[in-house]
Write a structure and sequence with these properties.
Radius of gyration: 18 Å
Strand content: under 5%
CATH superfamily of one domain: Tetratricopeptide repeat domain
Number of helices: 9
CATH class of one domain: Mainly Alpha
Distance between the termini: 53 Å
């Protein structure tokens, strides 16, 4: 699918303009067009800050499109490449939500445990981990309900 700016043959614009076009496509509900815009933007050279913005927005579009596997891999690479900004924006918490929908319990435990070090409210994460452990015990075919 061609990007909007390519289809109407506009001259190359700034990354913020193209990113806003992709955001407007997301708000209009045309997820394929938003991904096409992001793909054309990702082929160009940008600074690290713009790369982070592009990839995090692409992960959000993929979450909206219910492609949790692809979104999880993008979020994991963002956390590895930009640890300070990812910690500031709580990308690890977003990753645990994506993994919840994707039903990957082991990776959720690992993500929450690694997130505990620098998180401002570790008691919240302890509560999440405790709740996740009780959910694992109470799953179907896990020897029934236990109190």
């Amino acid at each position: 699918m061609k990007s909007f700016c390519d289809s109407i043959s506009l001259p190359p614009r700034s990354i913020s303009f193209r990113l806003n076009v992709a955001k407007s496509h997301l708000q209009l509900g045309s997820l394929d067009q938003a991904l096409a815009e992001l793909d054309t933007l990702s082929k160009e050279k940008h600074g690290e800050s713009e790369d982070y913005d592009l990839e995090s927005f692409k992960a959000n579009v993929l979450i909206t499109e219910k492609k949790q596997g692809q979104a999880a891999t993008i979020l994991e690479t963002l956390i590895k490449r930009f640890p300070e900004r990812a910690e500031k924006e709580s990308l690890a918490l977003t990753l645990t939500v994506v993994l919840r929908k994707w039903k990957s319990l082991k990776r959720r435990f690992q993500t929450l445990e690694t997130m505990k070090k620098g998180y401002s409210h570790p008691e919240f994460l302890d509560a999440r981990i405790a709740r996740l452990k009780t959910r694992v015990i109470n799953r179907p075919l896990a020897n029934g309900f236990k109190k």
